[in-house]
Amino acid sequence: MKNSLKQMARMPVKTTLFFLLNLFAALLMTLGVCIWQKSSSMMDKYEDQFITIGTVRQRPESFEAVRIWDAEEKRYSIVKRAQYASYDTVEDLDIPGVTYLAGPEQRAYYASYTPQYVKLWRSLNPNAVDTAVLVVEFTPLEDCIPEESVKICITKVIGGDSRLEGTTLWLCDHSNPKPEMLYQNKTYAAYLNHSNFLHGERAEEAKKESSMMSYTLEYAPLSLSSQLYRLDGSVIEDPFRDGPNIFEVTDGFYETDAGKRLLNLVDTRMYGRDIQPVTGTNETSLLMAFYNGDAYITEGRDISGEEYRDGAKVCLAPRTFMENNGLSLGDQIQVRLLYTDTRWTAGYRFELEGGYSSVPMLDAEGTTLEPFETSAYTVVGIYDAIAGDMDLSFRSGADELIVPMNSISERGGINLTASRPLADATTSFRIPNGTIDEFLAAWEKYGTKDLEFTFYDQGYTKLKAGIDNMKNFSLFLLASGVVLTVLLLVFYSYLFVTKQMGRTMLERALGMTCSQCRRSVLSGFILIVLSGSMAGAAGGIHFSRSFSVKSTAPGYYESAYSAGETVDINEVVIEDMPLENGVWIAVLCSASITAAGTVIALTRMNRSLKQEPMQILSRETEGEL
To answer: What is the model's pLDDT at position 301?
Structure first.
């Protein structure tokens, strides 16, 4: 080794350059391997934390202009209503080349009528009087046509707070372009709804007389027709639809169809505050509130995949409902399904702030709807929910139970009070992470043109793109290091081994063995290769530890619901991965370079040793002469 080092010392510039280039090549190789290892570890760690779901919306074929009379404006308002030739179904989403991890599903919420339980509205307003909807008998204070707000006296409360009897309210047949005359000496009956209007000469005069008025907004009569639909969106025929909404009370009135309907409405008028929404799904993550973190399990567990698949009678229940009714994890909740709604969600109809929407619960014959399915669900998980800043349709509903869709036997739209085609809030599916482009390509080939998709992946697409870029960069570094290493070893082995052939032959002529010649020439070369590769590998480890894979990925973003775009609603919190097995990576890279250098140099040395010493020496002597 001493002779080898002396020989290399005679070429200090070349030796130093060889050391530095070898160091740089080792640094590139080690840094490339480390970045690849950190990128792969990060993707492996966070892969299962991402969920990619898609929502579906059917595009309308056209819009119909519907005229609605506005008594305050004395004109028709034009409302555009979407028109569909037919409703697509989730079966239309079953196309070749697409893998679904859950769904696709079109959800409904089912109204469970259970007055034995305290609902959120009642717990927030224990002493409140619900004056929104009334079934009453009344007389006008004067002969009038209710084409504007007119005063009436409530003579009898059939359905509602009896304290309203004898009070004076405002009435307007607001959506009727040709209301009939009302007479002061007659009694009328109607199903009244508190509206957002108060208009006309009488109302203006009353406002001037007093700044403090009770019941300042008017009531409008509602139709006595049922609101039942078919699954295709068509309305079930009802003779009371588009008929009169105010009826004169005469002898035997409550024996007529109109009178019977009013009495039946009395039975169901208070149902709204005793309704508990029940939503069936195939995976909790398909519900947007759970997906984006506005709803989360605080006690117990989620419904398992097997329970979803088998339709087990288990459920997730909201914490407030459980507390209001003194229930605990593992208790059973009775469910009596009264009607089905595929148009709206529980979050839209039953607000977390305590508001609720009631619907007429009459069939086409005017009789009261009866529960179509009764069962008991065991609570396996308790969840909490916040209103958040999402659209009402995407939120959780007050008192909403989450159950396996297959646990509901009668899912065929029984007592369907509202229907619509596939929509973002009610239709969703889950696909493997990173397959959005494949899905859209398959849909372009096999799907229809009237469905529109919106994807949510919590930032997976952007993070994976950034990590893939880092993997490509690491491969470039590794390849550059390997190429540079090979070129360096080939060139400098020629310079330090092959070019020293004369010295080798002289040593052999002086009696040194082949092994001694190899050690004399190669030891210094291998030492330079080993020291340079070790220093470079150490530098690669140092730089890789300060290198952040996370910072190289494009940032997350939030967006409104835009069809066809990947939207990140609730990104997974990403932390950079520590370098694992850094010492072993350095050792491996350094050993690989040293081994390669040894093989290349030894190959050149063996070629030299195969030649006759005197022949080589004579050639060099002649060259000198």
So the answer is: 92
Helix extents (H) in 328-367: 346-349
pTM of the model: 0.74
> Please, what is the Cα angle at 495 between 490 and 501, to 5 degrees?
110
Backbone φ and ψ for 340, nearest 5 degrees, come out as: -120, 145
Q: Dihedrals φ, ψ of 238, to 5°?
A: -145, 125
CB atoms within 10 A of CB 181: 10
564-to-55, 272, 285 alpha-carbon distances in Å = 10, 37, 20
Q: Which residues does 522 contact at the CB level (< 8 Å), separation at least 6?
A: 4, 497, 598, 601, 602, 605
**Closest C-alpha among 544, 528, 527, 532 to residue 583:** 544
Q: What is the pLDDT of residue 316?
A: 94
C-alpha to C-alpha distances, 274 to 111, 214, 263, 350, 461, nearest whole angstrom? 9, 27, 19, 11, 44
How many CA atoms lie within 13 Å of 100's alpha carbon, on the beta-carbon side?
A: 17
pLDDT in the model for residue 562: 39
Nearest partner of 491 among 517, 537, 519, 525, judged by Cα: 525
For 268-313, write each residue's pLDDT tens digit. 766 777 889 999 999 999 998 888 888 889 999 999 999 999 999 9
Cβ atoms 344, 440 nearer than 8 A: no
Whether the bond into 104 is cis, omega within 30 of 0: yes
Using CA atoms, how far apart are residues 419 and 421, in angstroms rounded to an integer? 7
- Residue pair 424/54 in contact (Cβ under 8 Å)? The answer is no
235, with CB counted inside 10 A (0-12, 13-18, 19+), is: middle
Res 405: pLDDT = 93
Residue whose structure tokens are 């040709």: 178
Compute CA 184 distance to the chain's CA centroid, rounded to the nearest angstrom. Answer: 59
CB 223 within 8 A of CB 240: yes
Alpha carbon distances (Å) from 583 to 337, 531, 548: 64, 16, 19
DSSP annotation of 132 reads S
What is the number of residues in the chain? 625
What's the rounded Cα separation, in Å, for the pair 52 and 461? 9
Mean pLDDT, each 10-residue run in order, the chain (625 residues): 58 74 79 77 72 89 84 84 83 88 90 88 67 86 91 89 85 90 93 82 71 64 86 83 88 91 80 86 91 89 92 93 92 93 88 75 85 93 84 86 92 85 90 86 85 84 74 79 78 63 54 59 71 77 66 44 47 56 74 76 64 53 45
Rounded to whole angstroms, how far apart are CA atoms 448 and 52?
22
Q: At what angle do helices 582-609 and 514-545 cross, to 10 degrees?
A: 150
- pLDDT score, position 75: 86
